[in-house]
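Bench log, entry 3. Co-assembly request; chain sequences pasted below exactly as received.
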Amino acid sequence: MPPSMKPSASPAGDKARLSRELVLSTALALVDSEGLEALTMRRLGQELNRDPMSLYRYAANRAALLDGVTELVLDELAIFPEDPDWQSQLRNIAHDLRLLALRHPNVVPLLVTRPLSTPLGLRPLGTLRPLEQILSLLIDAGFEPSDALHVYRAYYGFLYGHILNELQEFIVDPEENEALLRLGLHRLPPKEFPRLRALGPVLTDYDGAAELDQGISILLAGLAAPLAAAKTSKKPQ
Amino acid sequence: MPPSMKPSASPAGDKARLSRELVLSTALALVDSEGLEALTMRRLGQELNRDPMSLYRYAANRAALLDGVTELVLDELAIFPEDPDWQSQLRNIAHDLRLLALRHPNVVPLLVTRPLSTPLGLRPLGTLRPLEQILSLLIDAGFEPSDALHVYRAYYGFLYGHILNELQEFIVDPEENEALLRLGLHRLPPKEFPRLRALGPVLTDYDGAAELDQGISILLAGLAAPLAAAKTSKKPQ
DNA sequence: ACCATTTGTCTACGCTGTAGACGTTACGCG
DNA sequence: CGCGTAACGTCTACAGCGTAGACAAATGGT
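Structure output for the full assembly:
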């Protein structure tokens, strides 16, 4: 074989033209499989069989690359603002987002921290789309726009909180996790942590979906109350 | 002045013995004033007027240093499990934690992401103390231990979510923020983001404490219901 | 077949965390 | 007091990081 045609000496040898989508998706794959800290310009370049510097044609810098990855992940979330039943909609979205987080646990830190470094007005459009769509949903359901914003905040706040909670207890494989947990709990000073130590057995089985669902129920009940009140107070008046 | 006594040529010249507390507290100060990325071993060493390598006597590596900082911050949270009124307790703690987050906004990313990288059993004790104390609180209030765990999760989940929410919209000084917001909103494609654009004015004034309080009310109402039900069902039986 | 523009590469710089060997100081004990 | 030991601090060095700037290669329109 003459080396003139395919100089792909290395096994990973697709030399197709790069594109932002390709860069971001392999970045995501890298993060999914090896964690956030594995996503370096050099490593990603090597993953794509390109010079690291070529990446800068598709992302201004590493931070922008991270933003691109979060945007890519959030695009996996499908929202259908047409559905008139806003409560079941919010419930479905919650579960979808939960599954999305479980699918990309290593991206969750980005999801929750990147917005902290970027003023709302300058965030990637993809990360604002869920906000817009949920606002639509709520306004169409009869909420005043400003109330819709409050509902959104309570809802999304709870949702993100739950995801963080669940991911803390999840981590890697349950086998090692359980062993580690027992070991760790045993290490706790019994005088200081009696409750936690006693909860050891309960801590191991954690039904995230159920816990989320039940939290959403509580929240929806509380959030729907003023809406119902407004409706009934408008009727008799 | 003979240079034999005080060779402190540089202005920041206290050459007292180091200690873990000193290292961590100046690390925290550095993070508070200049952000997370300013906390490098070299920079911290220079802040303490010491060789960067000396820090490794007090923290095994940079990750451990970050854990130490989070622990230090969480120690600012005072919980008094004696108070019999668990609802007002949880409400107070929520507001305390909110203020703590506003006092150390740059540490919040650590608060929410460090636990994701550390199995529960191996976390710094300081970060587990709030969990233990709130469990105590709830169990003393009459919850079954496993229910207490569920309540804790819903409560803390919401709390962390709210903090993330509020910090996203807060950021730096309101002046620049408002200008940026207007600019940013104006940039949004009107066809795609009509709701968000219309909410511009409302977005600027955000009463985090009120929003938190109201969310907590909803949550507490929902969480207390089963407890009350259990009490009344036990009486007639 | 040409040129212009986009895309990829190369080199180099200052920064990072930290391993390992080495002085230096402080402290307990005789 | 002095001595030995252990804790503390420093130095040097290395591999890896993000990325600026100059350059080569490829691509696509005319």
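Chain A has eleven helices and no strands. Residues 1-12 of chain A have pLDDT under 50 and may be disordered.
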